[in-house]
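Example record

Each entry pairs one chain with its bound ligand, ribose-5-phosphate.
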Amino acid sequence: MPSYSDKILLIAGTAHTELARRISTELDIPLCAAHVGRFPDGEIDIKIEDDIRGGDCFVLQPLCPPVNENWAELLLLLDCLKRASAGRITAVLPYYGYARKDRKDEGRVPISAKVVANTITGCGASRVLTVDMHAAQIQGFYDIPVDHLYAKPVLLQALQDLRIERPVIVTPDVGGVKMARAYAKALGDTDLAIVDKRRISGSEIAVEHMIGEVDGRNVVIVDDMISTGGSISEAARICKENGARTIVLAVTHAVFCGPAVKRLEASPADTILVTDTIPRHGPSPSKLKVVSVAPLLAKAILNLHDSKSLSVLFDSLDT
Ligand code: R5P
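Structure tokens for the complex follow.
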């Protein structure tokens, strides 16, 4: 068991400084003075200016695009803290990259999520705090504690604020049924529908059918992430074709790469609700509404520091 002082230290990489500042404001604890820059050849240059010896350190760094840059920065930050004699080091990863590569689903491919886990542990993390991992079983890739929070309470509040009349919760694929059922239950045991999705390539999706009734209904499509936007925009299209009245998308991680913004702009969705686990750079779809996970992460950091249970925050997907 690592021992640490009563000092919470927040250290931010450059992946999402805005979210780091929001967490710092929530906790009323300043971010540590640190230089995280680049040498002229692109290598990462890090120096923590504050004394962190013995402190309870939280490194804030989502593994969002540019994923490899942010991952390398995280590892160097962890190593830096370890060598500066931090008491305990928690890697706070609001978005866990490479999580879709969690098994060998064909020959001669890596299990990238395991490599991420090995490197995070190897560079000195004592624990990991993350939100809506694509595959919860990645926790088992670690021999250190992994606290897996769900953004559901944050998105749920935003959905309740929209006062959607008799919603139907839709999942863009069968893998999302558990998440959809949890939302359906929380919104008053509403109906469920499932989109029959087939992935053709990394960015191409085919959808021909859906299971369940959406005709004349207000639809809420829930998912853990929008990457290229193929899955969710196809789900929205089939819902509209099947008579949906209004469509709200409620998604945790707005990765928004490649054609995502264009696809979302062209989709029949009326509102696109996402959280701020990933920063927004460049244009956003016009119907985008962002809700913050900063209060959730701040509370989790506080509870971890005080050795209090996080289960009050685990508004899990178990129904
Ligand atoms: C799939 O299992 C995930 O939950 C997302 O639906 C998917 O990864 C999103 O990717 P894209 O936006 O590229 O379709």
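Residues 8-150+294-313 form a domain with the Rossmann fold fold (CATH 3.40.50.2020).
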